[in-house]
Amino acid sequence: MTVAKITEITATSKKSFDDAVQKGVARASKTLKNITSVWVADQSASVKNGKISRYEVRLKITFILK
Question: What are the start-end ranges of the H helices in 1-66?
């Protein structure tokens, strides 16, 4: 029987939403093993002087427990 768990994290980037997702998964991979999927639950951006200054994503990461 396989048991999976889902954890939620927030990741940010100054480049793009895609970069924020990549950074989030890379960071989660340092402590979570057997990651099988990631779902972008929410995304937002901060604006400064009329330009996007920070991209933020809320991720739900699924991993298999041993």
Answer: 17-31
